[in-house]
Structure formats: C-alpha cells, structure tokens
From TrEMBL:
Protein name: Crp/Fnr family transcriptional regulator
Lineage: Bacteria, Pseudomonadati, Bacteroidota, Sphingobacteriia, Sphingobacteriales
Record-linked InterPro entries: cNMP-bd_dom (IPR000595), cNMP-bd_dom_sf (IPR018490), RmlC-like_jellyroll (IPR014710)
Annotated source species: Mucilaginibacter antarcticus
Pfam families: cNMP_binding
SUPFAM superfamilies linked to this entry: cAMP-binding domain-like (SSF51206)
Residue ranges of every copy of the Cyclic nucleotide-binding domain listed in the record: 31-115
Domain of life: Bacteria
Length: 196
C-alpha cells in the first residue's frame, strides 16, 4: 500500500523501471508520528521531504503575538517540506505538525540528490513538485490580496476536498485568514444560502 501510493504519485510525472522503483523505495524511511507531534520546528534546517501515507500534516508559522498562521496542509498522497529551508539549507520559518497519528515516508536531501545522479528523471519530478509549490504559494498570496473570505474558503474546499469535515474549524479559519468567530458566521450564512 505505502509503496503503491508513492509510486502512483511519481509515475503521474515520470516513468520508472521496476529496478528504478526499487532503488527509489530503498531510500525512503518510513516513520509514524503521534498526534500533534512536530516534524519540523521554526529555526531548524529542513533536511528532508515528507510524503504522507496516512493522516495529515499542517505547515504553519507563529507570529510575535503567538498567533498561528496556517500556510498549508498535506493530506494522504501529498509531499510537504519547508521549501526555502530545504533548498537553501538555512534555518526555516515553518513548523510542520501532525493533525493526528500520521504515517510518512521521509526522503533526505542527501538521498534526493543521490537520486538525481542515479535516476536523472527524478530531477524532473522534483522540479515539477517545486514548481507546483511555488505556483500554489503565489496563488495563495494573490488570493489573500484580492479575494473575499468566502471565495478563499471555496478555494480551500477545491484544494483540500478530503479535509473540509475533518479539520478543526479554527485551522481552516487560519488558512483562509479570518478569525474563528468570523468563519463560524460565514459558514452559517453559506448553509442558510444553500437551503434557499
């Protein structure tokens, strides 16, 4: 199951022989994290990419007032890392935490670079992943500047359809950039609109 999920994710972008798949899988480290466990903390250097097999991860920052700002979620089948820290190998600003008990596959930066030499197609795969991450971050920035809270919520629902009913409302509120109170009122209004 674990192997199938990650291989399916990769073969959407590149083709691998059975030997190449085996070699790639041999570099991954499976790990289980408890609920609310930090995989990465602000100020640490990100040394690996994480692929989610079961559960969900959340990427967030904490401002000087202690408020959390959710930047991303990684449900099953998604990759997550502090991209700046991973690429620059400098201390990052992202915290990555589990939502519940979560099974992941870890790929170290060292092994990722080894993959580029051993199986050059992986350079394309990780370029696509990095480009998608950049496009997503830019889109989030543009959305926060130009869309209403309701439109940002609809975008969240499109991006994370499996998470709408499983995440705490305060985390969804943080992701779309509103207070939990505003989010509750907005959701109530949307439900009433749907009933008409």
């Amino acid at each position: 199951m674990q192997a199938n999920l990650i291989i399916d994710s990769i073969t959407r972008h590149i083709q691998l022989s059975a030997t190449e798949q085996e070699h790639f899988l041999s570099l991954l480290k499976p790990k289980t994290f408890k609920r609310k466990q930090l995989l990465l903390q602000e100020g640490q250097v990100c040394k690996q990419s994480t692929f989610v097999i079961k559960g969900c991860l959340r990427g967030f920052t904490v401002d000087h007032n202690g408020l959390e700002h959710v930047l991303s979620f990684a449900p099953v089948g998604w990759w997550i890392a502090d991209m700046y820290s991973l690429l620059a190998q400098k201390p990052g600003i992202l915290n990555i935490e589990t939502q519940d008990e979560t099974d992941v596959l870890l790929l170290s930066k060292t092994d990722q670079e080894k993959l580029y030499l051993d199986i050059p197609q992986f350079e394309r795969f990780f370029r696509v992943i990095t480009e998608n991450s950049l496009v997503s971050a830019q889109q989030r920035l543009m959305d926060s500047l130009s869309l209403t809270a309701e439109e940002r919520y609809h975008n969240f629902c499109r991006r994370y359809p499996t998470l709408i009913y499983t995440l705490p409302k305060k985390q969804i509120a943080s992701y779309i950039g509103v207070t939990p109170e505003f989010f509750s009122r907005m959701q109530h209004k949307l439900v009433m609109k749907d009933k008409k």
